[in-house]
TrEMBL record:
Pfam families: GTP_EFTU, GTP_EFTU_D2, GTP_EFTU_D4, IF-2. The keyword Nucleus does not apply. GO terms for molecular function: translation initiation factor activity. Belongs to the TRAFAC class translation factor GTPase superfamily. Classic translation factor GTPase family. IF-2 subfamily. Keywords: GTP-binding, Initiation factor, Nucleotide-binding, Protein biosynthesis. InterPro entries: EFTu-like_2, EFTU-type, P-loop_NTPase, Small_GTP-bd, T_Tr_GTP-bd_dom, TF_aIF-2_arc, TIF_IF2, TIF_IF2_dom3. Coiled coil: none annotated. The keyword GTP-binding applies. This is Probable translation initiation factor IF-2. It comes from Halorubrum ezzemoulense.
């Protein structure tokens, strides 16, 4: 083991930038990158894949009087660009988040948005320390920009009105953080960064407040993460896949962030794959050419080795089944089997519990798959299969095998529908939901299920015999028989045409005949409701024999229908129908207590 107290064994902390779609995540990264390049000579900034490394002296140049480089022995900061600039990325490293620290970007005028809430959930769950960048401070009405200055200096140059408007927006954000369970304050007021979240007002456009953000990130890392940054400089490299990409001349490659040890060209590595861990040998370690040489044809240069923390593209055979978010481990002085077990164990932490019934879930990374699974578990939606990757024909085939109609669904987070699956989807009885906000996806699906259930209940209700209790009115016999036509008043329930009717003799139901017509004010109708008076035609009985004026009759509800009404549709039927049903069931059950149960 190397001596960890030695300064050169401290790696760069990995910083993730999260936030809602248009709150300025990308432009903040671009500003930091741009100022870093103009600050250091272009040659001093090494180019990374999927990451930007900013050395300490460059940070101290950008932060000016805010930073004294001799206070720090960490080498700088490594900002990772989450793939596809998603709303966030829950990329993992050995059971925790890949990022050591995060920046949550919030538009100061816009406050918390769906993806902000989601990012906060992830930060809370992974326990990642974070800083809030309150971006777009320069859009405050009447703002007088002080390009690249520390924010407090910049605020001194503002009118009282602009200052108080900005303050109001900042306190709104501090309030929203508090609602989310985090106590926060403007960063210069925070005494203890382990208990409070620092909020840094800034502008990605003018660079104001960017020095402050770098200072806070540097200070937090130095104070609270120094131990975790101690690594074995020469140990076998470990990393996380950011993205799997096809590169001309190299086939499938994995963009990787290395967070421990060193990876060398020719090393045997184990990478988490969609079915099994992949064991392969590195053919090339690639990184972008330095800015100075950007004119050359090839965009990548080969390097012999790469140490943590860094972003690198690994070219090796058999990587097409690799997964975003999966571990990458160098085998070196162990057996491949040991490392395969480690990778399996790490992937097992992310195993999503599946059921025999449920929906198919696809997500872009293992981390987002995990977040999806958590959200669905809370919503009590079972999962039949959960995988990383775009939606392929076999996902549609699997979804179609679901037992229940509402489970014939695919929920895709940040993924595409593959070309060869489009026609399968059109011809299949499968519903596809796609969204870039997890809880939106879950909500869309839940809404769909509710509508489906409502529609099913409506069709069942249409077919079910509704209960009704009605009385033959005195002096309202219009015809004695064939069919008997009488005037009735409906006491409760809905009287439907073409139903069998009868009465209770004691607790026995006696059927008297079939309803063959209902007339209301001379017009034929299909049904009559409680409180209405109508004339009805009954095939079977004769008035005076079998039925009498003043008799109370009931619609005969078949036992199966009574059960559905009582157990499933009770909330869907009206209060008077419930009353008719209750009376009917009570009388039936006096004779047979289990009738309709």
């Amino acid at each position: 083991m190397t001596d960890h107290t030695h300064a050169d064994t401290l790696r760069t902390p990995i910083v993730a930038v999260l936030g809602h779609v248009d709150h300025g995540k990308t432009s903040l990264l671009d500003t930091i990158r741009g100022s870093a390049v103009s600050e250091g000579e272009a040659g001093a900034i090494t180019q990374h894949i999927g990451a930007t490394d900013i050395p300490l002296d460059t940070i101290s140049g950008m932060a000016g009087e805010l930073i004294d480089p001799s206070d720090f022995d960490l080498p700088g900061l490594l900002f990772i660009d989450t793939p596809g600039h998603h709303s966030f990325s829950t990329l993992r490293a050995r059971g925790g988040a890949l990022a050591d620290i995060a920046v949550l970007v919030v538009d100061v005028n816009d406050g918390f948005q769906p993806q902000t809430e989601e990012a906060i959930d992830i930060l809370r769950r992974t326990g990642t320390p974070f800083v809030v960048a309150a971006n777009k401070a320069d859009t405050t009405p009447g703002w007088n920009p002080q390009d690249g200055e520390p924010i407090q200096k910049s605020m001194e140059a503002q009118s009282e009105r602009a200052k108080s408007m900005l303050d109001e927006n900042l306190y709104e954000i501090i309030g929203q953080l508090s609602d989310a369970g985090f106590s926060a304050d403007l960063y210069w007021r925070v005494q203890d960064f382990q208990k409070n979240i620092g909020v840094v007002p800034l502008s990605a456009l003018t660079g104001e407040g960017v020095p402050d953000l770098l200072t806070v990130l540097m200070g937090l890392s130095q104070r609270f993460m120094k131990e975790e940054m101690a690594i074995d400089v020469t140990g076998p490299g470990e990393g996380t896949v950011l993205e799997v990409k096809d590169e001309r001349g190299f086939g499938a490659t994995v963009d990787t962030v290395v967070y421990d040890g060193v990876i060398r060209n020719g090393d045997t590595i184990v990478v988490g794959g969609q079915n099994e861990p992949i064991v392969t040998e590195i053919r090339a370690l690639l990184r972008p050419r330095p800015l100075a040489e950007i004119r050359t044809e090839k965009e990548f240069e080969k390097v012999g080795e790469i140490g943590a923390a860094a972003g690198v593209k690994i070219a090796a055979p058999d990587l097409d089944q690799a997964m975003a978010g999966a571990p990458v481990r160098v085998v070196r002085d162990r057996t491949a089997d040991q490392v395969i077990e480690e990778v399996k164990a790490e992937l097992a932490e992310i195993e999503v519990e599946t059921a025999d019934n449920g929906v198919v879930v696809k997500a872009d990374t293992l981390g987002s798959l995990e977040a999806m699974a958590n959200a669905l578990r809370e919503a009590e939606v079972p999962i039949l299969r959960a995988e990383v990757g775009d939606i392929a024909p076999r996902d549609i085939a699997v979804a179609e095998t679901a037992n229940q109609d509402e489970h014939k669904a695919i929920l895709g987070f940040n993924v595409d529908l593959l070309k060869n699956a489009e026609s399968d989807l059109e011809n299949a009885d499968v519903k596809l939901f796609k969204n870039e906000v997890i809880y939106q996806l879950v909500e869309d699906y839940e809404r769909y299920v509710e509508e489906k259930q409502r529609a099913q209940q409506e069709t069942v209700l249409d077919k079910v015999v509704r209960p009704a209790r009605f009385r033959i009115l005195p002096d309202h016999t219009f015809r004695q028989n064939d069919p008997a036509v009488v005037g009735v008043e409906i006491i409760s329930g809905t009287l439907q045409n073409n139903r069998k009717v009868g009465y209770f003799e004691g607790n026995e139901f006696e059927r008297v005949g079939d309803l063959s017509g209902i007339q209301k004010q001379g017009d034929d109708v299909d049904e009559a409701r409680a409180g209405e008076r109508v004339s009805i035609a009954i095939d079977g009985p004769t008035v005076g024999r079998g039925i009498e004026e003043g008799d109370t009759l009931w619609t005969e509800v078949p036992e199966k229908h009574a059960k559905i009404l009582e157990q499933e549709l009770k909330e869907e039927i009206t209060a008077d129908e419930r009353e008719a049903l209750q009376g009917y069931l009570e009388t039936r059950r006096k004779r047979d207590p289990f009738w309709g149960k």
